[in-house]
Amino acid sequence: MRKAESLEQLIAGWDGVGVVSRFDGESGAWFFVAMHDDSLGRPTGGTRLRRYGSPAEGLLDAMRLAEGMTAKWAVAGVKAGGGKAVLAVPGPLEGEARRGMLRRYGGLVESLRGAFSTGEDLGTTPQDMADIASATRWVLGGRGETVTDPGPFTARGVVGAIRASARHAGLLGGADGDLSGLRVLIQGVGHVGGPLARELAAVGAELVVSDVNRQQLEALAEEIGATTVAPDEVYGTACDIFAPCAIGAVISPQTVPHLACRAVVGSANNQLASDADAGALHDRGILYAPDYVANAGGAIAFAHLAANPNVEDGELFERVGKVETILDEVFTEAAERAESPLVTAQHRVERILADARPG
Ligand code: PHE
C-alpha cells in the first residue's frame, strides 16, 4: 500500500485532475476533494467522514477512493468521472457542530460550480447528505427534502455479484442463481453489510457476521439468525464467500494465507492493500470480484436517479442488475485468459477511458 508521506509529496506524486483542500478551523476538520479523472464526465463520488492518523492519511484515502470511482463509473457504463471527498475530523462530531461543519463543506462543494458532485459514503448518513445539500446542489440521491440511502442498492448489487461469483466458482448446487445453503461471511454490517445480510438470509444463505460494533452485530445476528465471529477471527473463518463490507486494505500479504473461502466478493472500497494481492488470491484459487464492480450498485442507482428524479425504487433496483451481468463477463474473460479478474476489469477500464479521451 502507498504510504501517506506529506501532503506535498502526495499531491506532487498524483496523476489525478487535482485536489481541493480546506482546513475548517471551527471544527478542526480537514476537507479534501480529490478529482481523479474527468474523461467520462464530472468527477463524482461519495464523501467519507472519519478520523485519520494525519491529514495526509485522509488525503491519500481520498485519492485512492477517487481512483476507484474512475474505474467504477467506467465499468458501469456511466458518464461520470472519478472523484471522492474526505472529511478528516479530529474526533466525534454531533449535533449543531456536525451540521455546521457539513454546511461549510457543502459551501466548498458549491463553490466548485459543478466540478465535483457527491453522495453518501462510509461515516456519512442520509441526514448528513441533506445537511450538505442545504448548501449545494451538487449532491446525488436527493428526493425532495430527503436524501435516499444508497446502501440497499449497493447491497442488491453485491447479491448479484455473489451469484455471479458462486456460479463461476462452481458453488451453486441447485438451480442457477439459488443461493440457499451458501455460507457467506460478512465483515461489517453497517449501511451496506446490514441490508446485504438481510437479503441473503431471506434467500436461505447461511450467514456468519462480524463487526467492531458489538451491539449492532448482536442485534442483526439475532434478527436474521446468523452466527457471529470476533473481528480478529474473520480471516481464518471457513466460508464459501468472504464479503468485506467495511474498511479497505483487508486483503493483504498478512491475510491472504489465512483465508478459508472460495471467493472474495464485497462492498468495501479498495479491498486490496495493493493490486499484487489479486494475484495472490488467483494463485490460491480464490475468485476475486473486483471491488469497484461488485460495489457499483449504489453508484449505478444514484446516477440513474440523478438523471430521472421521479423514478421509483423498483426501477433503480432493476438497474443494479447490471452488476451481475458485468461480473459474469469479467469472470468469463478472466477464465479464458487464465488471469485474475482484476486484470481483466482493469483492461476494460483502460479501454473505455482511452475511447473517451480526445486524440
Ligand atoms: N459512496 C458509494 C460508492 O463508493 C456510493 C455512491 C457513489 C454514492 C457515488 C453517491 C455517489 O460507490
Please tell me what the overall shape is.
Answer: globular
Radius of gyration equals 19 Å
Low-confidence stretches are none
Bound molecules: phenylalanine
Mean pLDDT: 96
| Main sheet: strand order | 10-9-8-11-12-13
Largest sheet: 6 strands, parallel
The multimeric state of the shown protein is: single chain
Count of alpha and pi helical runs: 13
What does this structure look like?
The chain has helices spanning 7-12, 55-76, 95-111, 126-133, 151-168, 193-202, 214-224, 276-283, 291-294, 297-307, 313-319, 322-337, 341-356; strands at 18-24, 29-37, 43-50, 81-88, 117-120, 142-143, 146-147, 183-187, 206-210, 227-228, 241-244, 263-264, 287-288. The chain is an alpha/beta fold. The chain has a 6-stranded parallel beta sheet with strand order 10-9-8-11-12-13, sandwiched between helices. A hairpin with a 4-residue loop joins strand 1 (18-24) and strand 2. Helix 5 crosses helix 6 (193-202), helix 5 packs across helix 10 (297-307) and helix 5 (151-168) runs parallel beside helix 12. The longest helix has 22 residues, at 55-76. The two termini are 33 Å apart.
